[in-house]
C-alpha cells in the first residue's frame, strides 16, 4: 500500500496497473526498503512524497520508473547510432586526417626546423622581437626538460582545431549578423555548448566514434571552442558604424562588396578577439580531451592524477600555462596591430 | 543647362510605424503629427512634399532637427523607401527601379557627403577618395589619377597616403567631398555636410563648395539646420517644419517676404545686411539725369554698399550687371530693407 494508490483507483486504472509485472531488476533503494521492511504509508504529512515517477511506480507497477527514462534515452541513442555514424563518419573523416597529418608533421620534422619556423611566424604576425625572444625561450625551456614532444602534440591539435573553428565559425557568425532569425536560432545552441560540462558531450561522441580515431577529440574541442569566434564575429559585424554602412549603400555597393570591403575589415578587431578566445578554449579542452586519447601535455596531467605523480602533474600543468601565455600574447599582439592600423 | 528640372519630388509621404498604409489614410484626411503619434502610434516623417530641384543649382533644404530633412534627402537615392509619392530623376521614377538599376543610379547618378564623414577607417585617403570608382571595379592604379586630381582640388595634396584618423575633421570632410567628386555623378547629396565642423572651417568649406560649384555646375541638394549657411549657399531654399514644406523659393524672397511665423522666428537672428543682395531690393528704373554716387554690382550685399556710402542716407547708387546699368538703389530703400522682419509681418498681417 503506497501513497498514491487512491489516485490510481479513483482514475479507474487499477487493472492497467495490475498488468505491470515486477520482473525488472530491483533497484538498490527497493532492496534497502525491503530489508528494512517498512513499506507502509507515511504516517504524517511531513513525509508526503512528491508524485515522482518512482513514487507513482510504488502505487502502480505499470507506471515507468525514472531509471527507465535514462535507459530509454540510451537505447534510443544506440538505435540511431549506427545510422548516424554512417553519415557523420565520412563527413568528419577529413578532421582525422588533418589531426593525424599535423601530429605526424610536427613530430617527424626535426626540432631545428620547427622552432625557427614558429619564431618566423611569431615575428610576421606580431612584428615584435621581444615576443619572438619570449616564445623562443619558452619552447627551449620545454624542450630542455624533455617536454618538447608533448608540447608539440598539444600545439598541433590546437592549430588544427582553432583553424577549423575559424573556418566554420566566421561564416556562421556572418550569417547570424545578417539575419535576426538565424541569430535567435543559433544563440541557444551556443549557450548550450558553452555551459554543458565538457565531459558530458564526450559521452555520446565515444559511442559514435571509435576511441582510436583522432576526430573524436577533434570534434569535442571544436564544439567547445567554436563559440567565442561565432559570437564575436556576429557582434563585430553588428557593431560596424551605421554611418559607414550607409555610405557604402549610398555609393552603390553590392551586399558582397559591403561584406568584404566594409563589414569584415571593420569587424576584424572583434573577430580577432574571438579567435584569441577560441585558441585559449581549445587549449583548455585539449587537456580534458586526453581522457579520450588526445595526445599531448594533457596525457601527462592525467597520468599525474591517476598515478598520483605529483611532479609530473605539476610540470606538465606548468607547460600548459607556458603554452597558454605564448598563444595569448601572440594573438593579442597581432590583434593590437590590427587595432592600431584602424584606430577610429 | 538652362535650369531644367533635374529631380522632381511629388506628393511624397513617409510614415514610420508597423502599418504605414493605414496611417497614411489618416494623414491624408488631415490628422496632424501629434495626433498620429497619440492615436495611431505612427510617426509622421514627411507630409505631401513637392519640390523641384533645378539642374546645376544648389537647392538647400533647411529645418530644425526632427523636421524630416535628413529623411527627405535619403528618399532621393532611396536609402529610405517612401510610403507614397514619386521621386523623378530626369523624368524617370526612382521608385520603379529594381535593385540593380538602383545600384547603378547610386553609382553613377548620385553621390553623397555625410555629416559624420563616414570614411572607411582602414583605407588610405586615396583609397577613400576612389571608393566610388573602386566599387565600379577600378583598381587603385585606374583611379589614382582622378583621385589625386580631386584631392588636390579640395586642398589635400600630399595627404594621399594618410589614414582618415590622422586628419582633422575639416580635412576628413574634404576627403568626403573629393570622394563624391571622383564619382563624377551629376547630382551631389550633402547631408549636413558641414554641421560637424567648427565655424571657421565651416565657412572655408562653404567657400570651397561655392568655388567648385562655379566650375562644375552640379545639381547639389544640401541639408542644413543653419540659416546663415542656407542663405549663403542656396539658389533655391526649401524650409521644412514637422515634415512639411513651410515655404520654398528664392532665399532673398523668403527673407523679404516670410509667410510663416516659424520662418520669421528663424530669420530674426540673422545679419540682414550681409545676406540681402542689391538685386533683390533695387529699383529697376535707370534715370539718366539722377546724380549717382557710384556703381555697385547687383551681386553685392548690403553691407558692402553701406560701407561704400559711409553712412550717408541721401546717396543713390547705380546697379550694374555685366557692365550694363540695370537699376538704381537709394540708401533710403536700403535702410528700409534692413528693418527687422517683425515689422514686415505686421505689414502682411494688416494686408490680409
Give a short overview.
The complex is a heterodimer of chains A (344) and B (352). Chain A has 344 residues and is mainly α.
Polypeptide structure, described:
The complex is a heterodimer of chains A (344) and B (352). Chain A folds into 2 domains: 5-64, no CATH class; 72-341, Orthogonal Bundle (MetI-like fold). Chain A has 15 helices and no strands. Chain A has helices at 5-10, 14-19, 28-36, 53-59, 66-108, 111-126, 129-144, 148-178, 180-195, 198-208, 215-238, 242-250, 255-288, 297-306, 310-341. The N and C termini of chain A lie far apart (76 Å). Chain B is globular, with a radius of gyration of 23 Å. A 6-stranded mixed sheet of chain B has the order 6-7-8-3-9-10, with helices on both faces. The model of chain B is unreliable at 343-352 (pLDDT under 50). Chain B is an alpha/beta fold and 352 residues long. In chain B, helix 7 packs across helix 8 (169-182). The A-B interface holds A 241, 243-244, 246-247, 249-254, 257, 261-262, 265-266, 341-344 and B 77, 79, 102-107, 110-112, 114, 116-122, 131-132, 134-135, 163, 165, 179, 183, 189.
What topology does this entry show?
The complex is a heterodimer of chains A (344) and B (352).
Chain A: H1 5-10, H2 14-19, H3 28-36, H4 53-59, H5 66-108, H6 111-126, H7 129-144, H8 148-178, H9 180-195, H10 198-208, H11 215-238, H12 242-250, H13 255-288, H14 297-306, H15 310-341
Helix pairs in contact in A: 5-8, 5-11, 6-7, 7-15, 8-9, 8-11, 8-13, 9-11, 10-11, 11-13, 13-15, 14-15
Chain B: E1 5-16, H1 20-28, H2 33-40, E2 43-54, E3 58-62, H3 69-76, E4 84-89, E5 92-93, H4 99-108, E6 110-113, H5 125-129, H6 131-135, H7 140-153, H8 169-182, E7 187-191, H9 199-216, E8 219-224, H10 227-233, E9 236-241, E10 244-249, H11 251-256, H12 261-267, H13 272-275, H14 278-281, E11 295-297, H15 302-309, E12 316-321, E13 324-330, H16 331-337, H17 341-351
Parallel strand pairs in B: 3-8, 3-9, 6-7, 7-8, 11-12
Antiparallel strand pairs in B: 1-2, 1-4, 4-5, 9-10, 12-13
Helix pairs in contact in B: 7-8
Amino acid at each position: 500500500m503506497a501513497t498514491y494508490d487512491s489516485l490510481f483507483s479513483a482514475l479507474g486504472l487499477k487493472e492497467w496497473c495490475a498488468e505491470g509485472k515486477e520482473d525488472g531488476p530491483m533497484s538498490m533503494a527497493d532492496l534497502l526498503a525491503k530489508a528494512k521492511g517498512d513499506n507502509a504509508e507515511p504516517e504524517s504529512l511531513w513525509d508526503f512524497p512528491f508524485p515522482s515517477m518512482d513514487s507513482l511506480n510504488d502505487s502502480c507497477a505499470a507506471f515507468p520508473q525514472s531509471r527507465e527514462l535514462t535507459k530509454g534515452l540510451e537505447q534510443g541513442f544506440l538505435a540511431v547510432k549506427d545510422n548516424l555514424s554512417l553519415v557523420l563518419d565520412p563527413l568528419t573523416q577529413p578532421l582525422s586526417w588533418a589531426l593525424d597529418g599535423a601530429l605526424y608533421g610536427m613530430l617527424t620534422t626535426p626540432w631545428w626546423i620547427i622552432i625557427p619556423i614558429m619564431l618566423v611566424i611569431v615575428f610576421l604576425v606580431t612584428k615584435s622581437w621581444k615576443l619572438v625572444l619570449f616564445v623562443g625561450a619558452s619552447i627551449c625551456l620545454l624542450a630542455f626538460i624533455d617536454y618538447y614532444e608533448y608540447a608539440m602534440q598539444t600545439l598541433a591539435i590546437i592549430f588544427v582545431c582553432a583553424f577549423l573553428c575559424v573556418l566554420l565559425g566566421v561564416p556562421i557568425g556572418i550569417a547570424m549578423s545578417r539575419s535576426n532569425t538565424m541569430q535567435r536560432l543559433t544563440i541557444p545552441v551556443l549557450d548550450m555548448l558553452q555551459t554543458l560540462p565538457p565531459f558530458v558531450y564526450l559521452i555520446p561522441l565515444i559511442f559514435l566514434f571509435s576511441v582510436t580515431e583522432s576526430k573524436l577529440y577533434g570534434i569535442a574541442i571544436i564544439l567547445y571552442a567554436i563559440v567565442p569566434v561565432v559570437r564575436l564575429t556576429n557582434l563585430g559585424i553588428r557593431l560596424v558604424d551605421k554611418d559607414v554602412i550607409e555610405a557604402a549603400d549610398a555609393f552603390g555597393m553590392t551586399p558582397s562588396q559591403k561584406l568584404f570591403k566594409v563589414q569584415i575589415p571593420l569587424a576584424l578587431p572583434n573577430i580577432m578577439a574571438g579567435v584569441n578566445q577560441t585558441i585559449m578554449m581549445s587549449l583548455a579542452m585539449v587537456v580534458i580531451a586526453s581522457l579520450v586519447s588526445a595526445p599531448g601535455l594533457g596525457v601527462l596531467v592525467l597520468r599525474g592524477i591517476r598515478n598520483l605523480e605529483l611532479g609530473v602533474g605539476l610540470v606538465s600543468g606548468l607547460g600548459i600555462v607556458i603554452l597558454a601565455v605564448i598563444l595569448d600574447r601572440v594573438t593579442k599582439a597581432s590583434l593590437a596591430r590590427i587595432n592600431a592600423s584602424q584606430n577610429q | 543647362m538652362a535650369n531644367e528640372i533635374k529631380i522632381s519630388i511629388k506628393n511624397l509621404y513617409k510614415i514610420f510605424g508597423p502599418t504605414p498604409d493605414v496611417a497614411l489614410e489618416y494623414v491624408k484626411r488631415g490628422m496632424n503629427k501629434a495626433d498620429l503619434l497619440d492615436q495611431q502610434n505612427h510617426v509622421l516623417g514627411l507630409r505631401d512634399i513637392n519640390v523641384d530641384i533645378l539642374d546645376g543649382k544648389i537647392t538647400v533644404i533647411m529645418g530644425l532637427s526632427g523636421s524630416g530633412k535628413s529623411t527627405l534627402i535619403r528618399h532621393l537615392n532611396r536609402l529610405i523607401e517612401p510610403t507614397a509619392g514619386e521621386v523623378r530623376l530626369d523624368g524617370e521614377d526612382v521608385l520603379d527601379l529594381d535593385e540593380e538599376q538602383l545600384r547603378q543610379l547610386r553609382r553613377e547618378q548620385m553621390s553623397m557627403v555625410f555629416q559624420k564623414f563616414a570614411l572607411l577607417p582602414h583605407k588610405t585617403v586615396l583609397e577613400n577618395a576612389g571608393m566610388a570608382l573602386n566599387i565600379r571595379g577600378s583598381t587603385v592604379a585606374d583611379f589614382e589619377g582622378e583621385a589625386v586630381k580631386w584631392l588636390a582640388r579640395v586642398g589635400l595634396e600630399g595627404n594621399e597616403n594618410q589614414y582618415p584618423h590622422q586628419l582633422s575633421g575639416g580635412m576628413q570632410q574634404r576627403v568626403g567631398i573629393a570622394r563624391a567628386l571622383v564619382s563624377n555623378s551629376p547630382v551631389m547629396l550633402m547631408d549636413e555636410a558641414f554641421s560637424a565642423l567648427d565655424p571657421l572651417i565651416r565657412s572655408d568649406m562653404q567657400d570651397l563648395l561655392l568655388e567648385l560649384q562655379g566650375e562644375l555646375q552640379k545639381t547639389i541638394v544640401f541639408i542644413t539646420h543653419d540659416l546663415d549657411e542656407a542663405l549663403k549657399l542656396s539658389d533655391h531654399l526649401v524650409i521644412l517644419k514637422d515634415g512639411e514644406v513651410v515655404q520654398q523659393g528664392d532665399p532673398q524672397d523668403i527673407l523679404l517676404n516670410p509667410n510663416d511665423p516659424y520662418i520669421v522666428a528663424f530669420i530674426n537672428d540673422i545679419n540682414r545686411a550681409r545676406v540681402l543682395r542689391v538685386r533683390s531690393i533695387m529699383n529697376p528704373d535707370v534715370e539718366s539725369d539722377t546724380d549717382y554716387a557710384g556703381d555697385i554690382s547687383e551681386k553685392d550685399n548690403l553691407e558692402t554698399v553701406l560701407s561704400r556710402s559711409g553712412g550717408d542716407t541721401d546717396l543713390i547708387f547705380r546697379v550694374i550687371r555685366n557692365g550694363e546699368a540695370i537699376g538704381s538703389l537709394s540708401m533710403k530703400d536700403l535702410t528700409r530693407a534692413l528693418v527687422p522682419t517683425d515689422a514686415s509681418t505686421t505689414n502682411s498681417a494688416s494686408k490680409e
